[in-house]
Protein backbone atom coordinates (compact mmCIF):
# COMPACT_ATOMS: atom_id res chain seq x y z
CA UNK A 1 0.00 0.00 0.00
CA UNK A 2 1.32 3.41 -0.98
CA UNK A 3 1.63 6.04 1.68
CA UNK A 4 2.02 9.75 1.17
CA UNK A 5 4.53 11.91 2.91
CA UNK A 6 2.77 14.18 5.38
CA UNK A 7 4.78 17.08 4.01
CA UNK A 8 3.93 16.45 0.35
CA UNK A 9 1.33 18.78 -1.14
CA UNK A 10 -1.88 17.20 -2.35
CA UNK A 11 -2.34 17.56 -6.11
CA UNK A 12 -5.08 19.85 -7.40
CA UNK A 13 -6.13 17.40 -10.08
CA UNK A 14 -8.58 14.54 -9.67
CA UNK A 15 -7.11 11.05 -9.43
CA UNK A 16 -9.58 9.84 -12.04
CA UNK A 17 -9.34 12.00 -15.12
CA UNK A 18 -12.81 11.22 -16.45
CA UNK A 19 -16.04 12.22 -14.75
CA UNK A 20 -17.72 9.05 -13.40
CA UNK A 21 -21.12 10.53 -14.31
CA UNK A 22 -20.03 10.75 -17.94
CA UNK A 23 -18.68 7.20 -17.91
CA UNK A 24 -21.86 5.85 -16.27
CA UNK A 25 -24.66 8.24 -17.25
CA UNK A 26 -27.22 6.13 -15.37
CA UNK A 27 -25.74 7.69 -12.23
CA UNK A 28 -27.68 10.90 -12.90
CA UNK A 29 -31.01 9.14 -12.39
CA UNK A 30 -29.87 7.47 -9.16
CA UNK A 31 -28.40 10.70 -7.85
CA UNK A 32 -31.55 12.68 -8.66
CA UNK A 33 -33.69 10.08 -6.90
CA UNK A 34 -31.53 10.22 -3.78
CA UNK A 35 -31.71 14.03 -3.68
CA UNK A 36 -35.49 13.84 -4.11
CA UNK A 37 -35.82 11.35 -1.25
CA UNK A 38 -33.73 13.40 1.16
CA UNK A 39 -35.42 16.63 0.11
CA UNK A 40 -38.93 15.53 1.04
CA UNK A 41 -39.08 18.12 3.84
CA UNK A 42 -39.44 15.74 6.77
CA UNK A 43 -35.90 16.47 8.00
CA UNK A 44 -34.50 20.00 7.88
CA UNK A 45 -32.00 20.44 5.05
CA UNK A 46 -29.55 21.85 7.61
CA UNK A 47 -29.66 18.60 9.59
CA UNK A 48 -28.99 16.57 6.47
CA UNK A 49 -26.08 18.88 5.64
CA UNK A 50 -24.61 18.50 9.13
CA UNK A 51 -24.88 14.71 8.90
CA UNK A 52 -23.25 14.65 5.48
CA UNK A 53 -20.46 16.96 6.61
CA UNK A 54 -19.80 14.66 9.57
CA UNK A 55 -19.69 11.66 7.22
CA UNK A 56 -17.05 13.38 5.09
CA UNK A 57 -15.01 14.11 8.21
CA UNK A 58 -15.28 10.54 9.49
CA UNK A 59 -14.11 8.97 6.23
CA UNK A 60 -11.35 11.54 5.79
CA UNK A 61 -12.57 13.02 2.52
CA UNK A 62 -11.48 16.60 1.96
CA UNK A 63 -13.74 16.76 -1.10
CA UNK A 64 -16.89 15.83 0.89
CA UNK A 65 -15.88 17.99 3.85
CA UNK A 66 -15.35 21.07 1.68
CA UNK A 67 -18.49 20.35 -0.39
CA UNK A 68 -20.82 20.03 2.59
CA UNK A 69 -19.19 22.92 4.44
CA UNK A 70 -19.85 25.08 1.38
CA UNK A 71 -23.47 23.89 1.15
CA UNK A 72 -24.02 24.71 4.83
CA UNK A 73 -22.48 28.17 4.47
CA UNK A 74 -24.63 28.93 1.44
CA UNK A 75 -27.67 27.81 3.44
CA UNK A 76 -26.81 30.41 6.11
CA UNK A 77 -25.44 28.12 8.81
CA UNK A 78 -23.11 29.83 11.29
CA UNK A 79 -19.37 29.21 11.28
CA UNK A 80 -19.66 28.02 14.89
CA UNK A 81 -22.08 25.25 13.91
CA UNK A 82 -20.11 24.24 10.84
CA UNK A 83 -16.70 24.15 12.52
CA UNK A 84 -17.96 22.35 15.61
CA UNK A 85 -19.49 19.42 13.72
CA UNK A 86 -16.25 17.50 14.31
CA UNK A 87 -16.69 17.95 18.07
CA UNK A 88 -20.49 18.00 18.22
CA UNK A 89 -20.67 15.93 21.42
CA UNK A 90 -19.51 18.86 23.57
CA UNK A 91 -20.68 21.71 21.36
CA UNK A 92 -23.55 23.95 22.50
CA UNK A 93 -24.65 24.69 18.92
CA UNK A 94 -26.83 21.66 18.17
CA UNK A 95 -30.37 20.65 19.07
CA UNK A 96 -31.26 17.28 20.53
CA UNK A 97 -32.57 16.16 17.13
CA UNK A 98 -29.36 17.22 15.40
CA UNK A 99 -27.31 15.41 18.05
CA UNK A 100 -29.33 12.24 17.47
CA UNK A 101 -28.73 12.54 13.71
CA UNK A 102 -24.99 13.09 14.20
CA UNK A 103 -24.83 10.12 16.60
CA UNK A 104 -26.55 7.95 13.98
CA UNK A 105 -24.11 8.83 11.20
CA UNK A 106 -21.19 8.14 13.52
CA UNK A 107 -22.67 4.81 14.55
CA UNK A 108 -23.22 3.78 10.93
CA UNK A 109 -19.73 4.77 9.76
CA UNK A 110 -17.59 3.73 12.72
CA UNK A 111 -17.01 0.20 13.99
CA UNK A 112 -18.37 -0.58 17.43
CA UNK A 113 -16.54 -2.49 20.14
CA UNK A 114 -19.92 -3.95 21.11
CA UNK A 115 -20.56 -5.38 17.65
CA UNK A 116 -23.84 -3.66 16.83
CA UNK A 117 -23.26 -0.20 15.40
CA UNK A 118 -26.74 1.23 15.94
CA UNK A 119 -27.88 0.08 19.35
CA UNK A 120 -31.50 -0.14 20.41
CA UNK A 121 -30.79 2.73 22.80
CA UNK A 122 -29.46 4.98 20.02
CA UNK A 123 -32.41 4.07 17.78
CA UNK A 124 -34.83 4.91 20.60
CA UNK A 125 -33.11 8.26 21.19
CA UNK A 126 -33.36 9.13 17.50
CA UNK A 127 -36.99 8.00 17.40
CA UNK A 128 -37.76 10.43 20.23
CA UNK A 129 -36.80 13.28 17.90
CA UNK A 130 -38.01 12.00 14.52
CA UNK A 131 -41.32 10.52 13.48
CA UNK A 132 -41.19 7.45 11.22
CA UNK A 133 -40.98 9.28 7.86
CA UNK A 134 -38.30 11.67 9.13
CA UNK A 135 -36.26 8.85 10.66
CA UNK A 136 -36.48 6.95 7.39
CA UNK A 137 -35.44 10.08 5.48
CA UNK A 138 -32.51 10.56 7.83
CA UNK A 139 -31.54 6.93 7.23
CA UNK A 140 -31.54 7.58 3.48
CA UNK A 141 -29.58 10.83 3.91
CA UNK A 142 -26.84 8.80 5.58
CA UNK A 143 -27.12 6.30 2.74
CA UNK A 144 -26.95 9.10 0.17
CA UNK A 145 -23.59 10.37 1.40
CA UNK A 146 -22.40 6.77 1.78
CA UNK A 147 -23.29 6.20 -1.88
CA UNK A 148 -20.85 8.95 -2.89
CA UNK A 149 -18.02 8.10 -0.46
CA UNK A 150 -16.35 5.66 -2.90
CA UNK A 151 -16.34 8.35 -5.60
CA UNK A 152 -14.76 10.82 -3.17
CA UNK A 153 -12.12 8.37 -1.94
CA UNK A 154 -11.33 6.46 -5.13
CA UNK A 155 -11.76 9.03 -7.92
CA UNK A 156 -10.72 11.96 -5.68
CA UNK A 157 -12.49 14.93 -7.26
CA UNK A 158 -10.82 18.26 -6.60
CA UNK A 159 -12.05 19.89 -3.37
CA UNK A 160 -13.57 23.33 -3.73
CA UNK A 161 -14.41 23.05 -7.39
CA UNK A 162 -17.99 23.32 -8.55
CA UNK A 163 -20.18 20.47 -7.32
CA UNK A 164 -21.30 19.95 -10.89
CA UNK A 165 -17.80 19.96 -12.36
CA UNK A 166 -15.04 18.84 -9.97
CA UNK A 167 -13.19 16.93 -12.70
CA UNK A 168 -11.58 19.85 -14.54
Outline of the structure:
With 168 residues, this protein is an all-alpha fold. It has eight helices and no strands. The relative contact order is 0.18.
How would you describe this protein?
It contains 8 helices and no strands. It is mostly helical and 168 residues long. Helix 3 packs antiparallel against helix 4 and helix 3 (45-59) packs parallel to helix 6 (96-109).
Question: Can you lay out the helices and strands and say which pair or pack?
Answer:
Blueprint: H1 20-23, H2 27-38, H3 45-59, H4 62-74, H5 79-83, H6 96-109, H7 120-129, H8 132-155
Count of DSSP strands: 0
Question: Which value, in Å, is the CA radius of gyration?
Answer: 17 Å
- The whole-number mean of residue pLDDT values reads 90
Structural class: mainly alpha
Percent in helix? 55-70%
How would you sum up the global shape?
Answer: globular
Tally of contiguous helical segments: 8
**Contiguous uncertain segments of 5+ residues:** none
Amino acid sequence: MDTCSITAEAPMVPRMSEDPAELVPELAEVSAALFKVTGNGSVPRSTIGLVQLRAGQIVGSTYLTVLHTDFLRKAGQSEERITSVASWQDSPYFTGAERAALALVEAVLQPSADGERVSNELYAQAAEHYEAKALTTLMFAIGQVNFFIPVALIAKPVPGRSFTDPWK
